[in-house]
Structures are given as structure tokens and as C-alpha cells.
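User: Fold both of these, please.

Assistant: Here is the first one.
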Amino acid sequence: MRIKTWFAASMAALLTSCSGVDVARYANEKPTLDLPTYFDGTIDAWGLFQKRSGEVARRFHVVIEASWSDRNTGTLDERFTYSDGETQRRVWTLRRQADGTWQGTADDVVGVAIGTVAGNALHWRYVLRLPVDGKEYEVTFDDWMWQMDDQAMMNRSTMSKFGIDLGEVTLFFRKRGSGEAK
């Protein structure tokens, strides 16, 4: 009987951990996030990756050059510089879908990222090919962004593999003003 009780409790915990906050929860939050408006021009982001234990394993700065061919198709050219001097580039192509959701593609994204906006929030889900020590791993990202004001955005992503949390990425975005140097 103990095994059945333990199994039932474990399954309930697993199902609870798989459910999350619905992005619609943020529908009334301001400022209202409009991707073509916020992601336009040059944006700086500072971030870090924390292992499951909470240890900061990596810090980085990203410069994003964002542009739009129209209000439904945009490009985010991200250039990462890590604290150890390594550099990386990811170029996202974003496309608004007829139902209002967003699809994102990049060379290291497996398939298509799916994003939903409500109020000040954007919720992305995607699989990323992540290089680690000369190997590539496919990890799942559960990625949340919240616009704080016209210039600032916060981002928190959880990374997992086979449903096991690997760690979290936290970023702070800041749009550059018209007079700031690159």
C-alpha cells in the first residue's frame, strides 16, 4: 500500500510541476508589450546562468540589433559576450501568426519557438541546441519576459532536459537612448 501511495503522490507532484502560470494572467498588466515597438533599435541585456544549486556558472552581456520589415516580421540579431571572453551570435526571425501568437526561428533552435503575449508578458517555449564542452545538447527553455517600462524588460528562463531542471537564465534588458554610444 505504501508504494501505491508514494506513486500517487509522486505523480501528483510531477503533474503539478508541469503546470505553470497561464500568460493570460498578465492580460491587464501595463505597459502593454508590443514586440515590434519594444524590440526596435539597439538593446543591451545583462544576464547570468545559475545551476540548479543556485551557483552562478556564467555571466554575459548581449547587444541586440532589432529591426522589422513590417509589424509582423522582425529580426533580433543577438551578440553575446561571456565573462570568460567567449562570444556567440544568434539571429532570431520572429513572425506574428494569424491567431496573435509569435513564432521564432534561429539556427540553434530546434523547430520553432512558440510565444504568446498578454499584457506586459511574453511566454516562449522552445528547444535550443546548447554547446557545452565541445558537445551539443538539446535543452528545453520555458522563457518568460515582462516589460517593466518603455526601456526595461526582465527575462527568466528555466532550462530542462528530459523534464529535469538544469538551471535558470536571468536577464535584464535596457533599450538604448537616442544619444547613447554603442
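And the second sequence with its predicted structure:
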Amino acid sequence: MSYEIKQDGKFKFIEEGNGEPLMLLHGLFGALSNFKDLIEHFRKSNKVIVPLLPLLELDLLHTSVGGLQKFVHRFIEHRKYDQIHLLGNSLGGHVALVHVLKHPEKIKSLILTGSSGLFENGMGDTYPKRGDKEYIRTKTALTFYDPAMATDELVNEVFEITNNRIKVIKIIALAKSAIRNNLGEELNQIKQPTCLIWGNNDTITPPFVGKEFNRLIPNSEIHFVDQCGHAPMMEVPHEFNRILDEFLVKLSSAAATV
């Protein structure tokens, strides 16, 4: 199912359903398609919002985790969202973490899956390798437990990005920014209930990273999923949605009791 991309000022986004806002932040090579199963499931109970992050549109000075966080903050303020359940995958999780540390007041809960912010393996020392589609296919497949998830469509998207010199420079800038921006000493300041959903076969942010997030974020719970890599919401959507459903229902029940 395809969703209408709305525009409000300079912001482009998907907004489906009604209820408490569930905002989804994609990763470095992420796209709206990463969240299609999640959108379809949660639009029945929540207002699901997916901003198109300007990963490759910001000027080089602001092509960083901090630059993306400022964009998300402006988007939230412009749209007047409140009581947000903020979900991020990979680099999107890192942006979500920085946002909740800087602007916690409108965030009701945090959901991280394969998030950077503590440790991540990059695409390798020789990446990005331009003009070699099989190399890109191999590297894209490392995102998943099942390499068949690296479809021709996905590989072509990544290949197109890595074949553009300016885009490659910006990807490298974002990746370096993520590595520099280690949040280990700040995570204990997060007060929001936090749900960590991690693939047991994630090679980019391995399971020990999820365990460390769980140790450092005070009010957090962690769920590991077998036969799953770096993008659980794509690879095991039903299990991902079940875990997230239970987390949100539990929050709602606790609020009702109070």
C-alpha cells in the first residue's frame, strides 16, 4: 500500500490514522518502504507520522546527527505534535536519542531498534565503492539475517546514492558524525519508558549494543528477535509489531491506572 506524502511548508511526511502520535525515524539508507508493515498495523490505533529526513539535502556543515535532530525538532514544533511515541531505526534511533535528551517535554516514550549512538560497524573501510553493484549488493545484504531481503529495488536505491559523489561525501559525513557522537555518558538522563527491539543476528549494531542501551537507559526493556538483522521492522514485521503493541498497551494501562 502506498501512502500520500504530505507537504507543510518545507516538511514532507506521511501521516496516517488517529490517536497518540507514533513518529518513525528512518536510518541512513532508510526509506518510507522500511516502515510499510508498521504503518499499516499502527494506523488503526495511532497517528503514524514518518517525516522524510533530509539526509542528503542539508548543507555539509549541518549534515550530522545534530543537524537532523534540529530538523526533527522544527518539524515537531511546526506540526504541534505532543505526547509522541518516538521510534528510530539505526541512524534514526541516534537522532531520536539526541532529541529526547535535548527536548524531552513532548516525548512520551522511546522505541529503538538497531540504533547507533554507542557502537556501530560501518559498511567497511573501502565503502562507499562507486560503480560496483555486486559490492553494494553484498554490503546491503549484511543489513539482514536473510540476504534475500536485499531486493533488486533496495540495491538499486543504495547503488544510485553511492554513485553520486556529493551524496557519498554526505553519507560519509553522517557516518562519521554518528561515530563521534557517542551518548554513553548521557543515556542515564532519559526518563521516558524505552522499548529496545534488537535482532539477535544484527552485525551492524550487534546484540551487545542493545544490552548496553538497556543497562544505561534507566526505564528500559529489551526484546531480542531470532533470525533477524539490523532492521527488525522490515525482516520480522509481525513479531516487531507484537512487541511494540504490548509496550504501548502497557503504557496506556499504566496511565489509566494513575
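The chain has nine helices and eight strands.
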